[in-house]
Amino acid sequence: MPVHHETPSYLTPTEIGPWGIYLEQIDRVAPHLGALSRWIETLKRPKRILIVDVPIERDDGTIVHYEGYRVQHNTSRGPGKGGVRFHQDVTLSEVMALSAWMTVKNAAINVPYGGAKGGIRVDPKTLSQGELQRMTRRYTSEINIIIGPTKDIPAPDVNTNEQIMAWMMDTYSMNQGSTSSGVVTGKPISLGGSLGRKEATGRGVFITGCEAATHMGMEIHGARVAVQGFGNVGAIAARLFAEAGARIVAVQDHQTTIVNSNGLDIPALQKHVAECGSVAGFKNADEITDRSAFWGVDCDILIPAALEKQICETNANRIKAKLILEGANGPTTPAADDILAERNILVVPDVLANAGGVTVSYFEWVQDFSSFFWTEEEINARLARIMREAFAAIWEVATEKRISLRTAAFVIACTRVLQAREMRGLYP
Fold first, then answer.
1. What is the CATH superfamily name and number for domain 46-179?
2. Any catalytic annotation for residue 44?
3. Which sequence spans correspond to the domains of the chain?
């Protein structure tokens, strides 16, 4: 009998949006899954999608409504885990894809989580602090029915931070009638947050970058690095590479691109961005007004640490780096992946390179459950071990099967997810 799957309308990619990119990535993995491929539709359908109305009263007394999402892609290996982003361009396709990449990421590094993601379509810069708090609390109360320390654990993402997490934790706890610190990660230290969490994603990019460079025979000392995005991930990765002797020759943020072939002073740049909100106007650098010129900068290592779909068919041929470390989620389209592979440019995929954040989120969750906290040195040592072990396993599969690191990461991750799905079976 022919296999028949009815595809819900919202799962059909009308254009190659984030969800479409993810589906292409899954199709590339299918030939490597053997007998588990009978379960592959599991990966192509989110387990649960919640779309909520988030009404708030503005400071001027008017009522406004925002659209919020929480998607749980897969929970076969454990509770859902993934960030919440506040951004004016948030779409269901994006949140679905991000939740699916979290499933893959958590399985690739072997932490006991499934994948989830959330978001509100809003420009948070247009809100006062009071409005931001009211919106966060209302959103949390709306998704309250599907989150929890053993169900789904949100975390910070684009335009959200430890203060947002504190409000989410408090709202959930008030509804529960008891303090529940494990419902979110990325919290302030004073509320059960983990040491090392803020730097974890950037640190993971650096650790996997060093591992990749070693396998390629590339010296980090003296290597030229270009970074797109100078937020939490890009800035920390840039600082760690600079401390290891690399030269950060270009940084692009939402406003402009700055370059200095001798290397930018990263601590000074971080201070400048903290004061001015952008890399624009930084003294010891030249500014490039043409944003696309960033992709042609002379460098050895390129770190896209901004948003999705940044490296595409139109700029993949211009990239001069030998190594790309994906600090952002989904920054490279499948078509660009093929171009980079043809040009022998090694890509360390997002599901490995930026997994440091969720790894330390896992440590935070474990510490909250036990009410026993580790030192920052212990956190960083455990993070480095997990990242290096995951990189080694993915490198081995890529070499053995002659596939890209991304496909190898997906092979390992999807095998783990589908093995769990098969062992659990279908209920009822």
1. Leucine Dehydrogenase, chain A, domain 1 (3.40.50.10860)
2. no
3. 46-179, 199-353
Q: 311-320 pLDDT, tens per residue?
A: 999 999 999 9
CA dist 135 and 132 (Å) reads 5
Q: Please identify which of the residues 117, 187, 198, 322 carries the catalytic annotation.
A: 117
Q: Are 160 and 89 contacting, i.e. CB atoms less than 8 angstroms apart?
A: no
Nearest-angstrom CA–CA distance, 258 and 119: 30
SS3 343: coil
Alpha-carbon distance of 418 to 37, in angstroms, equals 8
Cα–Cα distance, 186 to 165 (Å, whole number)? 7
- What would be the CATH architecture of the domain defined by 199-353? 3-Layer(aba) Sandwich (3.40)
For 227-276, the pLDDT digits (tens) are: 999 998 999 999 999 999 999 999 999 889 999 999 999 999 999 999 99
pTM for this prediction? 0.92
3 state SS of 77: coil
End-to-end Cα separation, the chain, in angstroms? 23
